[in-house]
Amino acid sequence: MERVVLVTGASSGVGLALCRRLLEEDGRIHLCIACRNAQKMEATRDLILTDYPAAQVSTVEVDLGNLASVLRVARELRCRFQRLDFVYLNAGIMPNPHVNFKALWHGLLTGKVLHMLTTAEGIMTQTDRLNGDGLQEVFATNLFGHFMLVRQLESLLCGNEKPSRLIWTSSSNARESAFSLSDYQHAKGQEAYSSSKYATDLTSVVLNRKFNKQGLYSSVVCPGLVMSNMTYRILPVFLWKLLMPIMWLIRFFAKTYTLTPYNGAEAHVWLFKQKPEYLDALVKYHSCTSGLGKSYVEPRKMEVDEEIAEKFYQKLLELEKQTLEKYSDLLD
C-alpha cells in the first residue's frame, strides 16, 4: 500500500518545496496537504498536479491557531484514512517581527555578528497577541495546535505494521533562554517564535519517550535561513534584494544559509528515507548548504533538559484537557 503523508503549511515556502521533493522521492505516496486558506490550498494542489499529474494529492483545510478547526480536521482525517505514515508539522507564524539594529551593530563590533546572523539571537523580537481561544497566537499555531492534532490522530499513528513518523519544523532560533515553564506561552516576553520552537524541541523529546514502543517516532529539523513569506516580513523586499549578494557570500561561513525553500527542505526529505529506530531523539537535523551550493544534512545535539521537557509535557496535557472539555461537542 502507498504511504500516506500529511504536510501542514504546504501552500508556500519549505512546505510546498517539501511536497514537490517528496513526490520526486516516491511518486506513489498519497500526499495530503493541510492549509489554512482554502483558495491557496486548491491552487497549491493544482500546481503540484501540473508538475506531477499522476500523483495522489488530497487536501484538508485547517487553521492550527484555532483549536475547533484542529479538532474538526482531526475527525475528518480519522474518517478518511486508516493510518498516517508521515506527518510533517511544518506550519508556523512569526507575527510583527522587528530587527534590533543596535544589537546587530554591537555584534559586529564584538565579533558575534556571524552567530547572531545564523541564530537571530538578540536581534529578532516579535509582538504576539491572544487568539480566539485565549492562547498566545504563536504558541497556539506553532506548537499547541500541532500537539492537539497529533494527540487526536494517535489511532492513525500508533500500532501500525511499520513505524509512523512525526517531523517538526523547528529552528536554530530555538533557545532555552527564551523559554520559561512559568510562562510557556511566552505572554510576557518578546521572543515568542524562539520560545515556541524550543517548546517544539522539548515536546518531540517526550513524544519519543511516550510513543516509541507503540511505533511512533518524532524528529525535529531546522530548514536554515530560507527566503520565504515569513522572512520577507522581517525587512522590506527591496532591502532583501540588496542584501542577497552579501548573503550568498555569508553562506561560505554560515552553512545554514540555505536561502531557497528547496534547500531548506533537505533535512525533511533526508528523514523521509531513514529508519527511525536508528535516529537519535536528542538530535536536531539541520538543512545546510555549502558555499558552492551543495545541500547536505548536519545532525546537532539539542540542548534540552529532559526533566523540564517532561514537566512541560504535563502542562500541555493539562491544557489539552481544558480544550477537550471546552469543545466536547466536536469529539466522536
Overview of the structural elements:
The chain has 332 residues and is of the alpha/beta class. The protein is built from 13 helices and 10 strands. The strands form 2 sheets. An 8-stranded mixed β-sheet has the order 3-2-1-4-7-8-9-10, sandwiched between helices. The protein has a two-stranded antiparallel sheet with strand order 5-6. Helix 4 crosses helix 5, helix 6 runs parallel beside helix 8 (192-211) and helix 8 crosses helix 13. The protein is globular. The chain starts with a strand and ends in a 6-residue tail after the last helix. 44% of the residues are buried. The mean pLDDT is 91.
Helix segment count? 13
Order of helices and strands: EHEHEHEEHHEHHEHEHHHHEEH
Strand numbers in spatial order across the main sheet: 3-2-1-4-7-8-9-10
What profile does the largest beta sheet have? 8 strands, mixed
- Mean pLDDT, to the nearest integer, reads 91
Q: Would you count the extended β strands for me?
A: 10
Q: Give helix % range.
A: 40-55%
Low-confidence stretches: none
Strand content: 15-25%
Gyration radius, to the nearest Å?
19 Å
Shape, per Cα inertia axes: globular
State the separation between the terminal residues, measured CA to CA: 27 Å
Which class of secondary structure composition applies to the elements?
alpha/beta
